[in-house]
Structure to design on (139 residues):
């Protein structure tokens, strides 16, 4: 009888731990979670004075509404524009990034910043690189 009582107590304790873990995990999933793809981008060689564009995808992998509060670039030569500012759980949107190489030359290192209400990662920094090359002159 005593052995059965100990087994029941241990089983109850294990069950309690499992239930509490599931409750804690369920609360964690309720927060918004921003995931950006890709996390970096290389434009490669860019002909001087041209404008190049790429897109990033931001997805809300959390359980609450993700709000894109602000997006900005490290310099005026790079423009950033999300298609939407609020994402429901599981929803995605594109962020358009345009780089103007006018007056630039050589290796370029820029950053776009995305500020959200994701409590674990409120500001995401995405590095951009490229190499601006001079136009071939035609004679």
């Amino acid at each position: 009888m005593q052995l059965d009582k100990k087994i029941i107590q241990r089983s109850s304790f294990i069950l309690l731990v499992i239930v509490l873990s599931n409750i804690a995990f369920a609360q964690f999933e309720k927060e918004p979670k921003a995931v950006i793809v890709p996390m970096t981008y290389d434009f490669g060689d860019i002909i001087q004075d041209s404008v190049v564009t790429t897109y990033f995808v931001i997805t809300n992998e959390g359980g609450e509404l993700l709000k894109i509060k602000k997006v900005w670039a490290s310099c005026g030569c790079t423009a950033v524009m999300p298609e939407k500012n609020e994402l429901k759980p599981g929803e995605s949107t594109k962020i358009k990034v345009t780089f103007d190489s006018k007056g630039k030359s050589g290796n370029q290192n820029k950053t776009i910043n995305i500020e959200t209400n994701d409590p674990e990662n409120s500001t995401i920094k995405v590095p951009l690189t490229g190499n601006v090359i001079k136009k071939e002159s035609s004679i």
Remarks:
- The chain has a mean pLDDT of 87.
- The chain has two domains: 1-30, 34-133.
- The helical segments are 2-29.
